[in-house]
Amino acid sequence: MRLANKVAIVTGAASGFGYGIAQRFAEERCAVIVNDVVRETGERAAAEIRGSGGNAQFVYGDVTRSDDVKGLLAAALKHFGRLDIVVNNAGTTHRNQPLLSVSEAEFDRIYAVNVKSLYWTALHMVPHFRSHGGGCFITVASTAGVRPRPGLVWYNGTKGAAIVTSKAMAAELGPDNIRVNCVNPVIGETGLLEQFMGMPDTPENRKKFLATIPLGRFSRPLDIANACVFLASDEAAFITGACLEVDGGRCV
């Protein structure tokens, strides 16, 4: 098993990409802290992983709050005795719309969830990793941070910031044996799909977006999860500062 005897925190893991990542990590025998702000869904996700033979505990926490993120580390140590991997997956967006139509509250929220959360996980997890000989961060960013398009201007900016922040962290933390990498999904089959599209999720509207993806489909949680498993595993021990585009060729 590729992640045997490792422990991971996966933020935003109650559904979508995060749940897929938590599931795959557990299948590879990684113990997982399933984090989310939706208690019922998060508890159900952790229970489903345990029901399939995995080792998972749900921990409520808002990644925009320092104390909540600090609590994720405490929970990992309490339940599993260690921490090896942090997957910064929690994310949000504004609806696809003209840039001047996005409210200040929406702007502040997406930067808090998509960018400031990286500050909090670094602040609380890096000292732990340093004292234990190393660790691994994986940031679930987006192709929006590589090839931005109209309608998601402020969201695009958060993902560009996440990518550059992760690369800079990799450069600074490499001597501590702390690896930092990104996975960049293309638009995916998640609960945020209509927000990204900015229109109803109908077959006709899907065709407009699918036409831009050479492999002809949206990303799926398993696609992103498999990429994260690789980057978290010892197979990627010499990979840091990388951005793996899981996008069906969208960025070609």
Cross-sheet strand order for the largest sheet:
3-2-1-4-5-6-7
> What pattern of helices and strands is seen along the backbone?
EHEHEHEHEHEHHHE
Structural classification: alpha/beta
The fold-level CATH name is Rossmann fold
Radius of gyration: 17 Å
Query: How much helix, percentage-wise, in residues?
Result: 40-55%
**What is the number of helical segments per DSSP (H or I, 4+ residues)?**
8
Tertiary shape: globular
- State the end-to-end distance: 33 Å
Count of folded domains: 1
Mean pLDDT: 95
**The CATH H-level homologous superfamily:** NAD(P)-binding Rossmann-like Domain
Q: State the CATH class.
A: Alpha Beta
Low-confidence stretches: none
CATH architectural label: 3-Layer(aba) Sandwich
What would you note in describing this structure?
With 252 residues, the protein is of the alpha/beta class. It has one domain: Rossmann fold. It has eight helices and seven strands, in the order E-H-E-H-E-H-E-H-E-H-E-H-H-H-E. A seven-stranded parallel β-sheet has the order 3-2-1-4-5-6-7, with helices on both faces. Helix 1 crosses helix 8. The chain is globular and about 50 Å long. The protein starts with 6 loop residues before the first strand and ends in a 6-residue tail after the last strand.
Helix/strand layout:
Layout: E1 7-10, H1 16-27, E2 31-36, H2 39-51, E3 56-60, H3 66-80, E4 85-88, H4 104-131, E5 135-140, H5 153-173, E6 178-185, H6 193-197, H7 203-210, H8 221-232, E7 243-246
Parallel strand pairs: 1-2, 1-4, 2-3, 4-5, 5-6, 6-7
Helix pairs in contact: 1-8, 3-4, 4-5
